[in-house]
Design goal:
4-stranded parallel β-sheet; alpha/beta
Length: about 160
Amino acid sequence: NNQLSLLLGEVKFYTSFKTATKKILDGLTKAVSSNYFNKNVIALINEKGNFDSIPKEFTDIIEKWESDPDINLYSEIIQKGIKLHYPMLILYDATELNFDDVIRKSVNIINSQFAKRTIDIEMDIELFFILIPVNSAKIIKEGVIECISKNELLE
């Protein structure tokens, strides 16, 4: 469809999948709150010169914010009908089962933990989990942090 979407998300590295899922779900209400959302959109606006193109709906919001920084960007996004896609990439330790079993078990954990929660949000949002079971999430996280600190590519 032609609906404009905004993509914000997060990455978690954990030894325990249950802990990672709990942390993400605990933080989800904050991540999609008006204040937190406004901060993230302002960060995107501040980087607008680094984008090849910006859709008209979002350009209108940027111009409105530049003339009145007190506007509620969250409300503006809702009024424009912009959908939030929120991917959650989770790298976690999983060495005891084969890949299919690990993913099946992980999806069951998400379903059981998510079913217990309610999120009060006005925005049209689509959540999705990207699950990557690995031998050592800690080693991968340390490598990523080292590459970021050196401004290098991960090998």
